[in-house]
Amino acid sequence: MGNTNCIIGGCIDQANVGVVECWGRFKHVAEPGCHFFNPLAGQWLAGVLSTRINSDDAFYELPNRREQIQAYVFYVVRALVPMMTLDALFEQKGEVAKSVLEELEKVMGAYGYSIEHILMVDIIPDSSVRKAMNEINAGKAS
């Protein structure tokens, strides 16, 4: 019987680093370039992070970054919106966006993320609320 080697290669693009694990535990960060891993020895490339993210915790604690950012946005919106009237909400949607941005910067900044801008496109109330608003506006006009 001869020697059997099972080596798997992986290339990490520039501006990224690889998270290398050995038997499911963090081993080291791999710099950009080509790397070889031996799965028979438990080594593998668990994932790739942008070098703009300066925390290794971001890989393990934020596996679903998009969903977690969205959850923080909903959390802040749900905390602010019930305290406002609908008219005030339309007038102050910039303030709501600013509050969301501040909360995201605080939470995600700990992981090395930089949130630069929040775009609040539109506020769409429930159809029953829109109907009631239209009836009120129609009553004011007559």
From TrEMBL:
Residues 59-135 form the Band domain. This is Band 7 domain-containing protein. It comes from Brassica carinata. The lineage of its organism: Eukaryota, Viridiplantae, Streptophyta, Embryophyta, Tracheophyta.
